[in-house]
Every structure is written in C-alpha cells, then in structure tokens.
Amino acid sequence: MLLSSIFRCCRWIAVVAIALALNLTIVAAPAHATGMYDMPLNPSSDGWVLDGAQRITRLNESNLNKDLQKLSDQTGQDVRYVTIHRLDYGETAQSFADQLFTRWFPTPDVGANQTVVVLDDVTNTIGLASGEETSALLTAEIAESLTQETMKAPLLKNNSYNQAFGDATVRLASVLAGEADPGPPIIEETINVEGTFATAEETEEHRTISTWVVVVLLILATVIPMATYYWYISIGG
C-alpha cells in the first residue's frame, strides 16, 4: 500500500514537472520576427507580390501581379509589394523597406525606376522606398499619402489587405504613368444630426406625464389608508 502511494505521488510529480517544462519553453520562445536575413537576395522574377504574412488571397494576388505587370510593360516602372509578420526589435516598416530596396537594387541605375512597398501586419504600418526616376513622379508627399491614407483607410475600416493593395495599385498606375494623381479616398464621416438631447416638445411631454404620475400617487397615498380604515371599522362594528 505504501509503495503504491509513493508510486502514484512520483507519477504526479513527473506529470507536473513535464507540464511546467513545456509552459516555460512556450513562454521563453519569442515570436519569430522577420529580418532582412529572411528576405530573398533578389526580387522574384515570377511575380510582383511577396506575401510573407499571408494576408492577400490567391485571387487578389493573381490580380495584383497582372496589374503590376501591365504597369511595368506600359510605363517601365516596377512596383513590388511585400507583407511581413512582425518586425525585428527596433525595426520599422520604413527602415525595412529602405534596407530591402538597397538589397535588391544596390546601385542607383538598377533601382532608378523601382518601388518597394512593405507592410507589417502586426502593426499595420507601411513603408515605401523608390528610385530616383520614380521619385520624380511619386513625390515624397504622394508616397506619404499613399501609405498613410490610401492604404490605411481600408485597414482601419475593415482590416482589408486586399483592398489596401488594390487601391494602392490604382493610384500608382495613374501617378507612374504621368497622369494626374487621383488622391486618397474620401472618407465619409457619419454625423448624428438628431443627437442624444431631447427636444422641447419631448421635454414638455415627459414633464406632463411625470406630473400626472405624482398626482395619481398622492391620491392613492390618501385614498388607500382611508379606505383601509373604514373597512377595518366596518368589520369591527
């Protein structure tokens, strides 16, 4: 009996020890962050989208590749989209975009008409880097608006990464073709015209109802005790 109890105690101790070890391993293991070492040495020749965070549907990725290929054929401007899941500590989407651009296009002539857009899906921050020729069309102001307004709007509204890159492609197609910048999307703000305050008519109506309620309660408070008294007297008499 004693040996059986000792065996059961040891078994439970072993189970608890294993569970604690597994929990410590899970807690100690940091979430994998994407660094420059995770990126390919050269841009892909098969497509214009590198969806490392897996935020874009296959259908939309196919459509983006077609649109960006068409943009390249018509304007000579190459745009590449990159999504990542979690940045290294101290890294930003913009610094990552700058480093990746330098990695893929190490010389000014190679990267003259290139653009790289990087999105981190953990923070939903976006960085953009482009070459000298492209920057003449895609100015710093337009680039800022593209990443912070055109792409951010669908992310803030319904977290739609497909729409964010789709809207960016439409705007880039116009800007990089030398056409007028269509600008960021117009965000409609819903304003509650009626408000939460009662109108004068509603206030007067509520006041009248309240007055009648008080009057009825006062009458009941007077009548009920009197009726009870007379009923008691009649029974006693």
Would you tell me which CATH topology of the domain at 36-176 applies?
Diaminopimelate Epimerase, Chain A, domain 1
Shape field: elongated
Largest pleated sheet: 4 strands, mixed
Helix content: 55-70%
Q: Strand-and-helix sequence, N→C? A: HEHEHEEHHHHH
**Quaternary state, please?**
single chain
Give the strand tally. 4
Low-pLDDT windows of residues: 12-30, 190-194
Strand order of the largest sheet: 1-2-3-4
Estimated share of beta-strand residues: 5-15%
- State Rg: 35 Å
N-to-C terminal Cα separation, in Å? 85 Å
Give the CATH level 1 class of the domain at 36-176.
Answer: Alpha Beta
Describe the structure.
Strand 2, helix 3 (93-104) and strand 3 (114-120) form a beta-alpha-beta unit. The protein has a four-stranded mixed beta sheet, sandwiched between helices. It has a domain at 36-176: Diaminopimelate Epimerase, Chain A, domain 1, CATH 3.10.310. Helix content is 57%, strand content 10%. The protein starts with a helix and ends with a helix. It is of the alpha/beta class. Helix 2 runs parallel beside helix 7. The chain has helices at 2-28, 58-75, 93-104, 132-137, 140-150, 152-158, 161-176, 200-236; strands spanning 49-51, 78-84, 114-120, 125-130.
